[in-house]
Design a protein that fits this description.
heterodimer; A: alpha/beta; 6 strands; 42% helix; globular; B: alpha/beta; 24 helices; 19 strands
Chain lengths: 183, 623
């Protein structure tokens, strides 16, 4: 199996934690996995992209139109990283809106890209922790059961990789993200 | 299920682990992206192993290298770490150390920044090492970086010469599942040459460090430890690739993607100096050779086979910048097509860019964090004296460039010296163009003391704002001399910036909280008035220490300064806050024609209210 995932967002909003959870989950499932992070000079508020590659590969870098999945933790970062996504790929976008402009919508249709919207900020704020929108996205992603990314497997990694006092809250938001998929 | 001896870690931790396993005894470094995580890694692994490694943050790279050299010269296994431009700071001792015999081991880890992503310039440490004939190793993955660090220490200890491990940010910050060994038991042989991958097309075996050879290299570095001899590859190869570092790993993925694994052998180089002579057989036996390396043409110059080589010199490889996946794929496709070996198979779909043209999304240039105290300082500097020259320096606060309060940036400490130069250039006729230089606290200790002393001694008149957030924020919150904290968190004595400044005889010294923007503005004006005074005591710089804790370390500790800001009601959409304050939490909403606040980023520092054209407190007090 080979799977390439681009996690894109803004500094300080948990992109790197999300990609860590993705690598660790894949490794626990017995796959090879590696990642490359790009976070530029800004500590908070800059673009952050973390590339995750699972399976047989040598470098953690992803080429244009090669990624299977694009997880956007912020809407504008979806556009900025869209060229990574291959034909037939899948995108999850954290956005308040539930639609795309015609031009982009047609492009995605033409490239056979399935794009799913989730208001992860809202899901996370309702549970009292806006900062944990990354968990809502992971939860929603797990609904699609891609490769090793099943609900239980990701939950296990969240328990291991997040700090003690946040575990419960993170799992709650993760679960809410998953249930958003079921709806 | 999880193997207890494996752990996902970044390349820098892998390097740290390799050094600790090789019996490291002393480590010294100055933080600099992409090298900063190696010292914390060493400290962590040392704790886990209950070892006795001494690890410290040095004041600058020269201190780090000399401390490590001192330890190595009397028999210890020592290492120092820095980023590529840090080696320039350490250059005098670097030049000296290479000629001296050491009794122990000395490994210099120098992390280059192709791109550059977080540096002012690119620089290839392999080139400098090769020119000076210092052994230099160039790992191609996070996993291999650990093996290479281990090997380098053993090699240095055995041969009594300093060895450089050159990493790049793509290696240092890649994350992989890495095996941990007991100290002293790692078995490393550098897996160079064309390896199995090139011959049999069996991926996944070419890069792994082989567990043989006892880990004690009794070879000269000029001998290959792993003879996957070039002659084992069909001599008829029309086209081969020589690659090192992350470029090798990307090239492997690219030829796999393009289904060319069986047709294009890749020769991998780890030891860039001295290079394994096998490489010449490989080059001679191939029809044409592409050289992929970052960032200078070091291997290309060594191979030197005229037109046979595709590289930087004939324009196939870009002359600067990172060799990304897309660039490498493009080069290989172009060459393969030109040589008539294969039709091009990847065509970028530019309809993506076309469709994106209709979308407006905010650009994200590097910016200071929302709530950063530096932002308030820069705003005050610009507000108090918009016509001033603003010499800047290296650190987070270089980002003040977007606020129009940083005009220059050369190297650490350079801003203070430039201010001196500007003073004499602009003010010899006593017209008094104001000059307001800025420097951070860590940088001030690193390289600002001598320039300030120099400026005082020679009677320069400018304002120096020392932006003291009591940490080295840009590289990950390392303690500064003032914090009185060692690298492993032990309390030691604190060295105060104000004591140093006073010690130079500077008499205009004010310490201000930059969040008090009006007071900051007033103080800058006061300093300017002091400098233009025609008295002898004003013939030296005026210093303002803008002191407020970095927001990243203050996180969660201080109370919200503001209640809800009712922008919906008050904002007139003039954008002056966005233009003048450049806070990433302020976003202009095109539909509403008003500024909105990104609640995920806003820290409620309230500084933007002081910038608001609708003026301030009234606006903030709305609930």
């Amino acid at each position: 199996m080979k799977m390439e995932i681009v996690c894109a967002g803004v500094g300080g909003r948990g992109v790197l934690l999300a990609s860590t959870i993705l690598i660790e989950t894949a490794i626990k499932a017995g796959f090879e996995a590696m990642a490359s992070d790009e976070y530029g000079m800004s500590q908070r508020g800059g673009s952050v992209v973390s590339l995750v590659k699972i399976g047989d590969c040598k470098s953690p870098l992803i080429g244009r139109e090669n990624a299977d999945i694009l997880l956007s933790f912020e809407e504008s970062e979806f556009y900025r990283n869209l060229a990574f996504l291959k034909r037939g790929g899948m995108a999850i976008v954290n956005t308040r809106k539930g639609f795309l402009r015609d031009g982009i919508g047609n492009l995605l249709k033409e490239r056979n890209i399935k794009c799913h919207f989730v208001n992860a900020d809202d899901i996370a704020s309702r549970k009292g922790s806006m900062q944990a929108a990354n968990m809502a996205i992971l939860g929603y992603f797990s609904y699609f059961k891609q490769g090793p990314y099943m609900l239980g497997a990701i939950e296990e990694t969240i328990k291991e990789k997040t700090k003690g006092k946040f575990v419960e809250k993170n799992l709650e938001i993760f679960d809410a993200g998953y249930r958003y998929g079921e709806k | 299920m999880k193997d207890v001896n494996m752990e996902v870690m970044i390349g820098n931790y892998s390097i740290a682990r390799g050094l600790v396993e090789a019996g490291l005894e002393l480590a010294a470094a100055y933080p600099g992206t992409p090298s900063s995580e190696i010292i914390p890694g060493i400290i962590e692994f040392n704790k886990r192993e209950h070892g006795h490694i001494h690890a410290e943050w040095s004041t600058n790279e020269r201190c780090a290298l000399e401390v490590a050299f001192g330890a190595a010269s009397i028999g210890r296994k020592a290492a120092c770490m820095m980023k590529q431009v840090g080696l320039n700071v350490a250059f005098p001792s670097f030049l000296g150390a290479r000629r001296k015999k050491i009794k122990g081991g000395l490994v210099i880890i120098c992390c280059d920044d192709p791109g550059p992503q977080s540096s002012q310039t690119e620089q290839d440490t392999r080139l400098i090492a090769t020119l000076l004939n210092i052994p230099v190793l160039d790992p191609s993955s996070a996993k291999e970086a650990g093996d290479v660090a281990y090997y380098a220490m053993e090699y240095s200890y055995e041969h009594k010469v300093p060895v450089i491990v050159r990493s790049t940010h793509r290696v240092s910050h890649a994350r992989e599942n890495i095996t941990l060994y007991q100290i002293g038991t790692r078995k490393v042989a550098l897996n160079e040459g064309i390896g199995e991958a090139g011959v049999k097309g069996s991926r996944g075996q070419g890069v792994k460090g082989k567990r043989e050879n006892g880990g004690h290299p009794n070879h000269s570095i000029t001998q290959s430890l792993n003879h996957s001899s070039a002659s084992s590859y069909p001599l008829s190869a029309k086209f081969g690739i020589v690659a090192s570092g992350m470029s090798f790993s990307i090239a492997m993925d690219v030829i796999f993607e393009l289904n060319l694994t069986q047709r294009i052998p890749i020769y991998k180089v780890i030891k860039v100096n001295p290079v394994d002579p096998d490489i010449y057989d490989f080059v001679d036996n191939a029809g044409r050779v592409l050289v992929l390396e970052e960032t200078d043409s070091v291997l290309e110059a060594m191979i030197h086979r005229g037109n046979k080589v595709f590289g930087r010199r004939n324009g196939y490889v870009p002359g600067a910048g990172e060799l990304t996946y897309d660039i490498i794929r493009g080069i290989i496709e172009q060459i393969v097509e030109e040589m008539g070996m294969e039709e091009r198979t990847f065509f970028p779909d530019y309809s993506i860019e076309e469709a994106l043209k209709e979308i407006r999304f905010p650009p994200r240039p590097p910016r200071l964090c929302a709530g950063c105290p530096h932002r308030a300082s820069f705003f005050a500097m610009r507000y108090a004296s918009p016509e001033a020259i603003f010499p800047g320096d290296i650190g987070c606060y270089t980002l003040g460039i977007s606020m129009g309060a940083v005009d220059t940036c050369i190297d650490m400490g350079g801003g203070v010296n430039l201010a001196s130069g500007f003073y004499n250039a602009c003010n010899q006729d006593e017209t008094f163009t104001p000059i307001i230089a800025s420097i951070g606290d860590s940088t001030f200790f690193h390289a600002g003391l001598e320039p300030l002393y120099d400026a005082t001694k020679t009677g320069k008149r400018f304002i120096l704002v020392i932006m003291d957030n009591s940490t080295t924020a840009m590289t990950g919150m390392q303690p500064t001399p003032q914090t009185g904290m060692t690298a492993d968190g032990v309390k030691t004595h604190s060295i105060k910036i104000e004591d140093m400044v006073r010690g130079f005889g500077i008499d205009f010294l004010k310490i201000i909280d930059p969040y008090s923007i009006p007071l900051m503005v007033e103080t800058i004006r006061e300093a300017h008035a002091y400098l233009v005074l025609d008295n002898h005591s004003a013939h030296k710089p005026a210093v303002i220490i803008a002191r407020r804790e970095c927001l990243l370390s203050a996180k969660g500790k201080h109370e919200a300064l503001l209640d809800t800001i009712n922008i919906e009601q008050d904002c007139i959409g003039c954008k002056s806050c966005i233009k003048l304050f450049d806070c990433p939490a302020l976003i202009f909403n095109d539909e509403k024609r008003k500024v909105t606040v990104d609640e995920g980023l806003c820290t409620r520092c309230g500084m933007c209210l002081l910038v608001c054209a609708m003026k301030r407190p009234r606006k903030g007090q709305n609930k």
